[in-house]
Specification:
Number of strands: 11
Strand content: 15-25%
Shape: elongated
Distance between the termini: 46 Å
Length: about 325
């Protein structure tokens, strides 16, 4: 519901829904006031010889009211989304108002043109009502297009951006306490996966196509989990396998220390997400990593990409952990 309110102009939405509904209701009320003066059925279609189509009075009033409401909702509704250009929203608001009034004018001209006649074959469209109503509909639509304020409104995204800017203004070191990093296995690993899966899959697909497709799908899944997204900020450490599956989340206050290290994946159970010897690891390859000691005695290991990025992640984790514990921040490297 919050996202919907942030994506539409609420005042324009109220008008787009309420105005056609009230206009249709006014037409229905006025039609029933003239109920005793108009024939039943009523003429609704004309040819050169006169009335050629007829409809019962209740059907004429019901469908007339629905046409007014639906036309207004469809056109005025185009001015509601905030994502559309301001000029387009102004234009659709003006057109919607004019079109709603014009449709009402046509129906009113048909209704008034048949008031007071004894024979439905004498029915006509009241040109005076049609001219006055059409003449008023056009300028009112132009006025609405000019007075409607279609400026962009303050949204939740704007509020979030403001809060981030204020936080950065009051604490300039906030930007330094954030790292977002993608790590992945070496290219040779992906080549090995491709060779080990695509060739057998091609052979299997000749006899059992679904088995070959399954083998390829498993290889793609395995390759995806040799990618990881590492996020470090003042809230702590978060690691996402394949970029979206959260496998680690350590609050800053729960971190005792963080140090860069060069590790062998085999010492931690292999590549990927592992639990080995009391240590939780998310390693996409052997090499630079960050070893995190938790305050509860547990240990974590996360691939750090390059040696420089591993040192940066360890330094930021040390800073945010010290901040969370209320200690003096260690100097930046």
């Amino acid at each position: 519901m919050g996202k919907f309110r942030d994506s539409v102009d609420i005042r324009a939405l109220r008008f787009a829904v309420g105005f056609p509904a009230l206009l249709a209701l006014a037409f229905v009320v006025c039609a029933f006031l003239l109920r005793t003066d108009v024939p039943d059925p009523m003429a609704v279609q004309w040819s050169d010889a006169g009335p050629a189509g007829f409809a019962p009075f209740p059907a004429f009033v019901t469908f007339g009211g629905l046409i007014i409401a639906v036309v207004g909702w469809l056109v005025l509704g185009q001015a509601v989304p905030l994502s559309r250009p301001a000029v387009m929203r102004r234009l659709m608001m003006g057109i919607g108002l004019s079109l709603s009034l014009f449709v009402t004018t046509v129906l009113a001209a048909v209704l008034v043109g048949q008031a007071g006649i004894a024979d439905v074959r004498e029915a006509r469209v009241d040109l005076t009502v049609l001219a006055l109503g059409s003449g008023a509909a056009l300028p009112l639509g132009v006025v609405m297009g000019f007075v409607f304020k279609a400026d962009e409104r303050w949204s939740v995204d704007d509020e979030r951006a403001l809060q981030e800017a204020l936080a950065l203004e009051t604490d300039p070191e906030l930007a330094a306490d954030s790292v977002r990093l993608w790590v992945h296995a070496r290219s040779s690993v992906f080549v090995m996966l491709g060779v080990a899966s695509l060739f057998p899959a091609a052979l299997l697909s000749i006899a059992v196509p679904w088995l070959g497709a399954l083998l390829v799908a498993l290889a793609v899944l395995a390759a995806a989990f040799l990618f990881a997204r590492v996020i470090v900020d003042r809230s702590g450490l978060r690691v996402f396998a394949a970029g979206f599956v959260r496998v680690m989340e350590v609050p800053a206050s729960a971190i005792s220390s963080a140090t860069p290290a060069v590790v062998r994946a085999a010492d931690y159970g292999g590549w990927g997400y592992r639990h080995h010897g009391g240590t939780t690891a998310m390693l996409v390859s052997s090499g630079p990593a960050v070893v995190v000691n938790r305050a509860d005695g547990k240990k974590l290991a996360v691939s750090g990409g390059s040696a420089d990025s591993a040192e940066r992640v360890a330094a930021v984790l040390s800073r945010v952990a010290a901040r969370a514990r209320g200690e003096k921040r260690p100097p930046q490297p």
